[in-house]
Task: structure prediction
Amino acid sequence: MATARNSAQAAPGSGLNDDIGEDKRLALYRSQLRIREAEQRAFDLFLQNLVKGTSHLSLGQEAVASGFAEAMQKGDLSFCTYRGHAHTLARGVSVEKVLGELMQRDNGLMRGKGGSMHLTSEEHGVMGSYAIIGAHLPIACGAAWRAQYKGDKDVSVCFFGDGTTNIGAFHEALNFAAVWKLPVVFVCENNLYMEYTPIGDVTAVPHPAADRAAAYRLERIIIGGNGADVVYRTAQKAYAKARAGEGPSLIEALTYRHSGHSRADPAKYRPEGELEKWKERDPIKIYRERLKQFGVGDKVIAGIDAEVRKEVDDATEACKAAPMPPLDILTTDVYADGGWAWRN
Amino acid sequence: MAEITYRDAVIRGIAQEMSRDNDVVFLGEDVAKAGGVFKATVGLYEQFGPLRVRDTPISEQAILGAAMGAAMTGLKPIAEIMFSDFFAVCFDYIANEFPKSRYMSNGQTKCPLVVRTGNGAGSRFGAQHSQSVENWCMMIPGLKVVAPSSPVDVIGLLAAAVRDPDPVIFLEHKSLYPTKGEVPDGEIVDKLGTAKILRPGRDATILALALMVPRALEAAERLKAEHGIDCEVVDVRSLVPLDTQTILGSVAKTHRLFTVEENPRLCGWGAEIVSIVADEAFYDLDSPPVRITTPHIPLPAADILEDIVLPTPERIVDTVRRSLQG
Ligand SMILES: Cc1ncc(C[n+]2csc(CCOP(=O)(O)OP(=O)(O)O)c2C)c(N)n1
Ligand SMILES: [Mg+2]
Result:
């Protein structure tokens, strides 16, 4: 039974040349920080009424997205939820494209046709963000089936929340993936809440994903989801297993969202002190300390911080200046011929 | 030329497409080793092997979701949902996922798949295994919806559906599986979005789909023989895309329109067509269009009850005759 603990408590590795290495660590840091800054900016822009509709932030959950994405190879596929900005950014999609979509501008990833909950960038392997709970678990199975059938070596990685473990599609997909031995990795980001209800109030087992693994003859894997190194190593192992034809993995990563469920939620339902406790285990804070433990200088860190902030600032300005989408895209791409004709 | 059943046409259609293209794969419950509950996929497993013809668990969401994921990334899956009534347990894919991913992604995501399903009444299976759900599918932008009435159309339209780059719902009528028809030798590929005039006529247009087609044809013969009314029977075949031109052309000629629909009354496909005709051909009409449908009730199981609720040749004859002769 693999049960890794949060890296915040773990002793530092043997040095800069451990299995992760400095380059990858800096990439993990940059990735998490990009998400943090972009999500924070999305929240600020919402307060300025420049982000319309809904949005679901991953503030506090950055290490899961960055750890899994940084362990991927080009060609690996991510399937995300409406809480998908983080996973989209982590695959290298530009902050401008993401913020543009949130701000419903023509420079957005889907030119405003999808919105915050449906970020998709197939060229980056982001195969969609799905807003019907559980829908994308079977879809990820299908992409993995294609890889298996064609002998392709890519892995399909499917991210979802704790609440998603109680919908039928979760169970259908796990059984299906296990029986067909598909190269798919299911990642449950257990942030302790579905929308507003604590997951424990509505789930028969304490670990919503891991405690179900045995039903599908899968290993029970729980990790601290706020330590990017632990996440990264866990991802590597699961991807290697998938690529070796040894079937799916189900990983439960313990984490916490700093903001409410969606932009409208002040998260009043949290017990006193819970947020503060988790903020002590803030993945960005943890990782900065970790970099220092590994001898990365303050200047290097400050340099990354400045670059990331600049990307987010520049993106914000570009989005503010970008036009709204033209009306003629309303009827494009309903069908594969590019149009919407349903009759002659 | 050979005479084959509608059931064997399904097998031949799938086999034709799987032989042509290795990316065509097929999955569903009991479809592989068992050959399907309607025996409409017998022999495919033996011919194409366990990697291309796959039995699934009873997991309709997994079946359709997996088909979508495979389609998005390069395969051309055919998924079977045993009874169309079961669309209700996997409707997320039909209503939210297949048809909207291309639009929402601004054209990035493709979804070239076919969902085959056993649709329609006549088997005395009761309200949850007999429905005609073509109207559930027709109302969703982004889908294509086809319902063949004859063996040759099964092969040709199935081939067209598999080759089509959009998600296609392919409704096979359970009561038509044993029916027979002439089918030419060699490859057959038809065109989606095309209706077929099966019987030309001057006095009235009768539109029908699937099982209602042979009933409309029978009614037309009797209307001619017994009442001297010469009906044009049009097999709509494809609800989306809809061949409006053939329909409007027929109405322009006959000046009278009847739809024969197996779906329950409210929001049946005929309602949409009647509204198009009212908008675009009102002055061609000599009398109000008439919809002949199943009444707005769940389907009963007993044969005597089921037989009265579905449109029959008798009901079609009576309705058309009363409308024309008063
Ligand atoms: C089928 C379905 N039911 C309900 C919802 C409404 N809803 C949106 S997010 C959400 C909570 C999901 O919780 P979880 O899986 O833990 O993900 P998290 O938001 O915490 O990342 C719910 C109930 C939905 N989108 N889809
Ligand atoms: Mg949650």
